[in-house]
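2024-03-11 09:14:02 DEBUG pipeline.ingest accepted 1 chain
2024-03-11 09:14:02 DEBUG pipeline.ingest length=691
2024-03-11 09:14:03 DEBUG pipeline.predict start
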Amino acid sequence: MDLEKIDTLLTHQYVFNDPLHQLFNAVDAISVQGYDEERRVIYWNQGSELVYGYTEQEAKGKKLEDLIIPDAMREIVISAHGDWLSKGIEIPAAELTLWRKGKQDIPVYSSHVLFTNQFGKKQMYCIDIDLTNVKLAQAQAMLKQHMLETIFAAIPDMFFLVETDGTIIDYHVNPENNHQIVPKSLIGQTITDILPDVITHKFQTNIAKALLQGEMISFEYSLPKQDDLTHFEARINTLQKYNQIMVIIRDITEQHKSAELIRHQAFYDSLTLLPNRFLSLDRLSQLLLEAERNNEKAAVVFLDIDDFKKINDSLGHEIGDKLLVHASKRLQQFLQNQDTVGRLGGDEFIILLKGIGGHHNATLIAEDLLQAFRQPFNIDNRELVLTVSIGVAMYPNNGCTVSDLLRNADTAMYQAKSLGRNTYSFFTQEMNNVMQRRFEIEEQMHVAIERKEFTLFFQPQICLKSHKIVGAEALLRWHNPVLGNVTPDEFIPIAEQTGLIIPIGEFVLKQALTFLVEWQAKDNCEYTMAVNLSPCQFRDNRLYEFISQTLSKYDLSPKLLELEITEGVLLHGKADIHNTLIEISESGIHLSMDDFGTGYSSLSYLRQYPFDVLKIDRSFINGISSNQADLNLVKATIAMAHSLGLTVVAEGVETKEQLTLLEELNCDAVQGYYFSKPLPKNELLNFSASF
C-alpha cells in the first residue's frame, strides 16, 4: 500500500484538527509527533521538522523506528510501544539520544502520552525538547569547572587569599612540594608570620606596592637548603572589588637550574667544556677594549690539529672526540689564568693572550705549544702523537678589530700548514695578499664554466720512430675578465680544495674528446688524447661511469683515451682508488704515470698498478744534454719502463740535442716546445695538417 493510500486511511481513523493539534501547530519550539498503533506517523508539527530535519510530507506514514530511532534502540522502542498498547505499561519520560535526518545524533527530553480516539484507535504522542544547547552549555560549564580544577591542582606550590592587612582567608599548599612552610591550618594567621624571617620584609614591601599601584607585582627570592639554594617566584595581585590580595608562590629551582644550563650550553663547548666560538669572540672583544685602554699588546692564536680527519676516519669519531678533550686540557695547562682557550669547532682552537710583550713572547708560547703536542696522548691504550699548525696575529700591528684579527690569525695558520705543518707562522701583509688573491680566484671560479671562461689547449706528441704526430695532451687554460690569465698552477690547487675540480674535470674530458672526434675526422688518422686526472676526482664514485658514458657518447674506442695521474692519486692507497684504476685499465683505457721521478715511491707504484705509459718529468729532460747524472737517470728510466712493457714519453723537449739523445736512448715519444707549444684546437688542426 502506497503512502497516499495510507494517508487517506489514517485520515479517516484518527483525529487531527482538534484544539490540541492547533496548539501544537502554533508552538515550534517543541517537537510533537503522533503515531498510530503500528507506530506510523499521523502527526508531525513544525517543531518536529526543526528538531529532526524531516518535513511533514517526508515523515507522514513512516514508522517511528525508521525515522528517528537509532539501530541500537530499535527493538527496545518497538517492544516498549507494544507493552504500552497491550499491557498498559507506560513509556517513562527520559533523556534520549535519537537520530536527526542523516543519522545524526541529537539529545532530547522525550515524554509520551497514549489515548484512544472516538474510532477506538489508540494514538501515541511524543513530546520532545531539543537538549542540544542545554548539553552544550552543560559541557562548557563542566569543561570550565574541570579546567579550573585542573589548573588549581596543577599549581605546583602555594596560593593565599588574604585581607589587606595580610590575614589569610583561604589557601592552597601542595603537600608534595617543600616550600619551607608547614601545611597546617593557616587561616587567621598573617602571611608574614608563616614565612621565614629573611624574606618577610620583601613580602611586606611588595604587598604595599601592589596595593598602591593596583597591579600585579612579581619578585624572586632564594632560601638556603642544605648545601644548595632553593629559588622561588612570588606574584602578588589585588582583587580591588573585594578588597583582598592574592599571593602565589612558585618553586622555580628547576627552571633556575635549566636556565643556568642553557646559558652554559650557549657559551661553552659541550665536548671540551671550553668557551665556544660565541664566548671566545666576546672575550676577544673585551680583550681588545682592555688592551686599547691600557695601551697593551695582545695576541690571537689559531691552532689546528694536523691530519685530524685521518684520525677520525681510521680510528673512529669516539677516539677523535677523546683526543680533542685531552688536547683541550693540555692547552689549558700551558697558559696563564688570564688567557682564554676556546674551541671554534672541529679541531680548531683559539687562544687569546692578554698583556703580551711582543713577537718574542708570542714566539715562546707558540714554541711551547708545539712542544706540548709532541708528547704522546694515551687514548684507550693507544699512544698517539699529534702535531699542530699555529697562526698568530698581534694587536694592534695585525688588526684592531675582532674580524681583522680572526681573519689574519686564520691566514697565518694556513701559511703554517703550507710550510709543512707542525710549525707556527706570524701574520704578514704579503700573506694577506696571497690569501686575498686566493679568495678572488675561488669567487670567480664558481661561475667560470657557466661563463665559458675555460678553454683547452693541446700539445702534440711526436713518435720518435715515425716522426709523426700520434696524439696530444689536453691542457686547461683560464682567462677571467677580472683576473686576466690565471695559470693552472694557481687555480688547480684551489679547485681541488673547493671540490670544483669535479665539474671542471668533467668539462675537460668532454671538450677533449669532442675535439678528438673532429681532429681524427679531419686528418683521417687515429690519434690518442691524454687527459690529466686530479687526485680529488677519485673521490667521485661516479668517475669511471662518467668516463665510460662519455666515450660511448662520442663513439670512441677506450684505447684512444690516456688518463694521466700523478703519485698524489696513489699516496692514499685506498681500496676504492685501486679498484677504480683496475676498472679503467680493464676497459681498455690507457693509464699514464705523469711527472715520473718527482715522487718518492714511483717504482713501487709501477709494480702495483696497471700503467701503460710513463712520462718523464721535464726537470730531468732539461739537464740530459749538460748533466751526466740526469742523462744516466733518464737512460735507466727508459730501460726500466721498457722492461715492464711501458711506453715512454719525455716531457719538455726544447732543443735538438735533447731530441737526439732521447732518440739514442730509444724513448718512444716526446712533447715540448721544440716541436710545438700548447695550441688552441684550430691551430693544432693546421699544425697537424702541415707536419
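2024-03-11 09:14:41 DEBUG pipeline.report The two ends are 113 Å apart (CA to CA).
2024-03-11 09:14:41 DEBUG pipeline.predict end
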